[in-house]
Write a structure and sequence with these properties.
The structure holds 2 protein chains of 2 kinds. In chain A, the strands form 5 sheets. In chain A, strands 13, 15, 17, 18, 20, 21, 23 and 24 form an 8-stranded parallel β-sheet that branches. A 7-stranded mixed β-sheet of chain A has the order 3-2-1-4-9-6-10, with helices on both faces. In chain A, strands 12-14-16-19-22 form a 5-stranded parallel β-sheet, with no helix packed on it. Chain A is globular and about 65 Å long. The relative contact order of chain A is 0.13. In chain A, 21% of the residues lie in helices and 27% in strands. Chain A is an alpha/beta fold. Chain B is α/β, with parallel strands linked by helices. Chain B has 9 helices and 34 strands. Chain B has a 7-stranded mixed β-sheet, sandwiched between helices. In chain B, strands 16-19-22-25-28-31-34 form a 7-stranded mixed β-sheet, with no helix packed on it. The radius of gyration of chain B is 22 Å and the shape is elongated. The two termini of chain B are 34 Å apart. In chain B, 53% of the residues are buried. Classes of the chains: A alpha/beta, B alpha/beta. At the A-B interface, helix 8, strand 12 and strand 13 of A face strand 16 and strand 18 of B.
Chain lengths: 371, 420
């Protein structure tokens, strides 16, 4: 597929916190859906659209993201021309380590965008889980003659805050944008994905730099709807939103639904992720598994119900896991009972531990914890 | 080409006729094994883990799948600036062109490739063995003993020795004789098909062997005896651990079952010696409510609604509700429809087993598909890319091959489709 666009993904979002899960890593690097990280979906969408140059904007805690992305080879983005660029916050000597206060990080971004030669830029936040391509989005944008097009859908409010609601005029242009309104005349919830001309983006960022503004984001650009013509573009496919820890948990559980899994993984293009070369999952004599997603390298000797198991998880004998999200390389010892629990990478649950959360407030065990 | 100390050459050109329809369209080393691997992943990963960075893969029979699979060698870290993976098919040269006539001839035809790498040692591997081995240790022994060639050997039970190529040795593991399948073995050291040669010695032997018109140009039956006759020093390198030749349907089935029954022996979970493979891009597998799954190995993209017991499933296998899969090996993309019963079957890529089909070792009856030459021990083998008719009955030791002419009333194949 050919597309005359570059991609930009914002790896962090200062309005979204996933508590323990986003403590050690950027939002984009939070594991989601068995073998993936959140960013894999948007990155694959861009690659599947034919985008060959993607910049990832990071603020801090980007080590885990860099480990995951590597050279970009898993997404076919290890290229001589363009490919994957991780843009860490840019601090120069003049700003004496106070980079966040100035617009200096935007200078690095500007250099990256200037060095590109695509006509368009697609910018996306990293809390949306969807499997799509942007070719139709870009085509409609070109035909419309708008300055910016912004994607929205109509079921966003059920994933909790934060939510940007578009108020749209009769011609389909955004006339107002509200953050988490109590009462709203519209259910058009922004997906945090926009397209605009690369030249226009350069002008806007240069303008921000000269004004000393530092909050670069999808919605700060959409906010210019009074001076720019911002078109609202409805997306009708499946979108899962990771807005907060409950949303993370609910979205994980939604993946156990056949239809949602089909929409996200089977009916569209593939979702790529870093290759791990784990062994196949092994099920032993005493395993009882129902309604669960299980990844390679797992060893199941116990009972697993309504759960999501990432790669390399061990569930020992006589342990019971219900409504849980268990991340990579977690070891669950014998005689444990876990319900409504999210366990981050490398944690160890000692024998006989019983942990019960509520489905609206799951218990979260941090990365590497020993319980 | 950059200089390499060791070059590994993987013999991957053989048809593997004893695997029947499984190797109809793909070479034996490209046959899926152990849920997420292909057979050739084992020697390739051994090379990568042993620090051997120049690997030639000699392909000849049905090379498409193998060539695409090995590709640039990236999954095995063999996409190197210096060295890497090279697919070496037979080629035409001015005046004449030859297929690879035997294992030694295949190497002979690629001696220019090896000369360009200018190695001291050449490691000859075969593409049809399942084992994890550190070739570096073998090389160290080879250098220490100042041998001209070192052959990896495995102690096998005496009663099984007549099935192998046996090496008779003197006390200090110096090889005195090579006997192919001896009726009365004098030793129980079986050759594993892993040969390490000092390149100068091998090069000379290959050229000499080529001049002998009646030679089969084979390592075991020609090169090794020739070197012994010339008084060269050939040493045995003792290997202990899991090793299996998967050249027949029953040994391929057994090796798959070993992953379930003796997981600690082949130990695929060992992270210090990973077996790498080219990964399918599929989501984690899904086990539905009401599914039963025991003693089995599964990988990405599987969707299980029925019962899976003691079986090895490759990626993207679907087992529908009420279907029972037992003691079986399902290759990528197989679908087992509702109510089907599968027992001790090996089913090829993307084949669809219709509703209520009964197939396998415990199914009795007569069938035109009976093939006890390929299918032993009750195993049923089904070709790839077929739709098996609903409620068809396929008794033990059958091989479902679409090229067999069968009375339409007894035909179990409803449809054939192209497998990509």
């Amino acid at each position: 597929m050919f597309i005359d666009a570059m991609g930009l993904i914002l790896a962090d979002n200062n309005k979204i916190s996933l508590g323990e899960l986003s403590k050690p890593r950027a939002l984009a690097a939070v594991p989601f859906g068995g073998r993936y990280r959140i960013i894999d979906y948007m990155l694959s969408d861009m690659v599947n659209s034919g985008i060959k140059s993607v910049g990832i904007l990071t603020l801090n805690k980007y080590k885990s993201l860099m480990d995951h992305l590597g050279t970009g080879a898993s997404w076919d983005l290890d290229r001589k021309n363009f490919g994957l660029h991780i843009l860490p916050p840019y601090v120069n000597s003049e700003s004496s380590g106070n980079g966040m206060e100035d617009a200096d990080e935007l200078v690095g971004l500007l250099d990256f965008i200037r060095s590109n030669r695509s006509m368009y830029a697609i910018i996306a936040n990293s809390n949306m889980i969807l499997n799509t391509t942007f070719n139709d989005f870009l085509e409609k944008h070109e035909q419309s003659g708008a300055d910016v097009s912004a994607m929205y859908n109509r079921d966003g409010t059920k994933y909790g805050v934060p939510n940007y609601i578009f108020d749209v005029d009769r011609k389909g242009y955004v006339k107002d944008m509200l953050l988490n309104p109590e009462k709203s005349s519209s259910n058009r919830c922004s997906l945090g994905i926009i397209v605009l001309k690369r030249e226009l983006l350069i002008d806007m960022i240069s303008d921000m730099i000269s004004r000393g503004e530092r909050n670069f984001g999808v919605h700060t650009l959409v906010k210019k709807h009074d001076t720019l013509r911002v078109r609202a573009h409805e997306y009708k496919g499946l979108v899962l939103r990771i807005n907060n820890i409950q949303g993370y948990f609910n979205s994980s559980m939604l993946l156990l639904d056949d239809q949602i899994r089909a929409d996200l993984f089977w009916n569209g293009m593939p979702i790529y992720t870093k290759v791990k070369d784990e062994a196949p999952a092994l099920y032993f004599e005493n395993s009882h598994v129902g309604n669960a997603m299980v990844s390679d390298g797992c060893r199941i000797m116990g009972t697993v119900q309504n759960s999501m198991l990432f790669r390399g998880v061990t569930v020992s004998r006589n342990s019971k896991i219900t409504n849980c999200v268990i991340m990579q390389d977690v070891h669950i010892s014998e005689n444990c009972e876990l319900e409504n629990v999210i366990i981050d990478k490398n944690a160890v649950i000692r024998p006989g531990i019983k942990l019960v959360g509520h489905k609206d407030y799951p218990v979260v065990i941090g990365k590497g914890a020993i319980v | 080409m950059a200089k390499a100390d060791v070059v590994a050459m993987i013999l991957a050109g053989g048809q593997g006729a004893r695997l029947g329809v499984l190797t109809k369209y793909i070479a034996k080393p490209a046959v899926p094994f152990g849920s997420r691997y292909r057979i050739i992943d084992f020697p390739l990963s051994n090379c990568a883990n042993s620090g051997i960075e120049t690997v030639g893969v000699l392909s000849q029979y049905q090379p498409l799948a193998l060539n695409t699979y090995v590709g640039n060698g990236h999954p095995w870290d063999l996409d190197r600036n210096n060295g890497g993976a090279y697919i070496l098919p037979p080629y035409q040269r001015s005046g004449r062109s030859d297929w690879y006539k035997g294992t030694a001839n295949a190497i002979y035809q690629n001696k220019d490739f090896i000369d360009d790498c200018d190695p001291k040692y050449v490691l000859i591997l075969s593409g049809d063995h399942i084992y994890k081995m550190n070739y570096e240790r073998m090389l160290r022994d080879h250098i220490k003993t100042k041998a001209d060639a070192t052959l990896a050997v495995l102690e096998v039970p005496w009663e099984e020795a007549p099935r192998f190529g046996i090496l008779n040795t003197s006390d200090d593991d110096i090889i005195t004789e090579f006997v192919e399948k001896p009726k009365k073995p004098e030793s129980n050291l079986a050759s594993m098909g892993v040969y390490l040669f000092t390149w100068d010695v091998l090069r000379k032997a290959l050229i000499e062997d080529e001049e002998i018109p009646e030679s089969n140009n084979d390592f075991g039956s020609n090169i090794v005896p020739m070197l012994l006759k010339q008084g060269k020093k050939l040493c045995a390198y003792r290997f202990s651990g899991y090793w299996k030749d998967v050249g027949t349907i029953s040994s391929l089935w057994e090796a798959n079952m070993d992953i379930l029954d003796r997981p600690e022996e082949i130990n695929l979970m060992d992270r210090s010696w990973r077996v790498y493979s080219r990964n399918p891009v599929k989501p984690s597998h899904y086990i539905a409510d009401g599914a039963v799954i025991k003693n089995s190995a599964l990988t990405d993209g599987c969707r299980i609604y029925g019962t899976v017991e003691h079986s090895v499933l490759s990626n993207s296998v679907t087992v529908e509700k009420g279907a029972i899969v037992r003691d079986s090996v399902l290759l990528p993309g197989v679908t087992v429809r509702a109510g089907a019963y599968i027992d001790k079957c090996i089913i090829g890529f993307n084949t669809i087993i219709g509703e209520g089909v009964r197939a396998g070792a415990s199914v009795t009856g007569d069938s035109p598909y009976l093939n006890t030459r390929i299918c032993t021990d009750g195993i049923v083998v089904i070709e790839r890319g077929l739709k098996i008719k609903d409620h068809a009955v396929i008794p033990a030791n059958c091989q479902i091959d679409c090229d067999i002419a069968v009375d339409p009333a007894l035909n179990v194949i409803e449809e054939m489709f192209r497998v990509r």
